[in-house]
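Subject: Sanity check before I submit

Could someone independently write out the structure tokens for this chain? I want to compare against mine line by line before I put it in a report. The sequence has 133 residues.
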Amino acid sequence: MRINWYRFLFWIWFVTVLIVSSLSCAGIQSINLGHNALRIDYPMHSIAYALFPVFAFISSDFGKKRLRFALLFTLSVALAVATEYIQLMVPKRSFNPKDMAFNLMGLAIGAIAVIIVHHSLQRKRQRKQPPNS
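---
Independent answer below. Compare away.
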């Protein structure tokens, strides 16, 4: 049995994000800059979720298996929403619609990157095919 390491990476990342989102310790929220604080948790949400479409694309054989990609991407969207609702049940955590918005924004950024790469790969494949005579 051959292991699809890319799919394994997707699931490891999925479980990691789920666990970290379920912990009662909130982690780094902001960095103090004198009188102002820079919120870094929102960009962290976007970065974490931007990786999901990338991992889904790679694990779906670079877009050749569209149903697998669609399923993994849909699961990523569900996780982006569900983690915020799960936090309602976690002590010292709360539902934050901005977190959910940044989760979804990260998914959108990752999806746009995947679309650009996918179209680029398709053009390369088409150029490599010999012309039909």
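---
OP: Matches mine. For the report I'm noting this point. The CA atoms of residues 17 and 48 lie 8 Å apart.
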